[in-house]
Amino acid sequence: MKEHLLQVKNLNIIFGNQQHPQQVVYDLCLTMDPSEILGIVGESGSGKTQTALAIAGLLNRHLMDKSGEIMFQGTDLLSCSREKLRSFQGSDIGNIFQEPMTSLNPVKKIGWQVEESLRIHTKLTAKERKEKALSMLRMVELKEPERVYEQYPHELSGGMRQRVMIAAAMINEPKLLIADEPTTALDVTIQKQIIKLLLKINRENHTAILFISHDLSLVSRICSRVIVMQNGRIVEEGTADSIFEHPGEDYTRQLVAAIPQIIPRTGGTQNE
User: Fold this and answer.
1) What is the CB neighbour count within 10 angstroms for residue 239?
2) Phi–psi pair at 34, nearest 5 degrees
3) What is the DSSP string of 74-142?
4) Which of 15, 48, 129, 181 qualifies as a FRET site for 55, CA 20 to 30 Å off?
């Protein structure tokens, strides 16, 4: 029996205190297999981002009440020690976010930031870290990587900064990449380039990708399987073909109907 890379069981997330609790995720269950691209889609407030942050271990444990399990490589990320959780973050689990300017340090050069996970998780020398960072900047198809390595975030375009974030997330060759609205702040042309890059990473590195978005047209192009969330609950899940061609729930049908035009999917396995 094939072992899942990630298995979330009955995840509940509640913010606030006992007098004013606000539950944002209800009994969520999902699985991901190695090399799979799974999409979570839903409108703002659906709980998709909180789910992603919980899996990434980025929710403040003191400001929330949670229950359930997030099993990754035999470890429950919800209940394990902070030290154990940090051993996964940036090593086996990488993250890219919607706006890299809020994630990148404005006063540190790009090379220093791409190398950060290497300093934490490896014993590579400074020269070896630089060589690997430059290799990753080339992998994400940044022109003149040596120049980019010495630049600051404000000197790069939005698309270039997002490629830097992807390079930083992939520097330790994680098994799982969590991409939370990674193209929302970019124009359509750059969005297409980033989607193509994520598909390349999935194909060549066999990296599983959890792709979070409100944009069903993007999800239809990259994901092989889709989960639809509404008000903190999963309302429908299935293959991308079944979700987009034969949606079973009214909410899903409304989301699909709102797409101006579904671009032919790549399903995360084909070249564009």
Assistant:
1) 14
2) -55, 140
3) TEETTTS-HHHHHHHBTTTEEEE-S-HHHHS-TTS-HHHHHTHHHHHH----HHHHHHHHHHHHHHTT-
4) 129
Residue bearing the bigger pLDDT, 40 or 17: 40
Coil, strand or helix: which one is 250? Answer: helix
Model's pTM, two decimal places? 0.91
Each residue of 62-87: pLDDT tens digit? Answer: 778 889 999 998 899 999 999 999 99
Q: What angle in degrees, to the nearest 10, is found between the helix axes of 188-205 and 158-170?
A: 20
CA dist., res. 244 & res. 165, Å (int): 30
**Percent of residues in the chain assigned helix, strand, coil, to nearest 5:** 40, 25, 35
User: What token pair was written down for 174?
Assistant: 């994680």
Interatomic CA distance for residues 203 and 196, integer angstroms = 10
The Cα 134–Cα 144 span in angstroms is: 10
The amino acid at residue 182 is: P
β-strand partners of 176: 93, 208
pLDDT at residue 266 tops 80? no
Higher pLDDT, 97 or 28: 28
CA distance 229 to 42: 5
CB atoms within 10 A of CB 91: 18
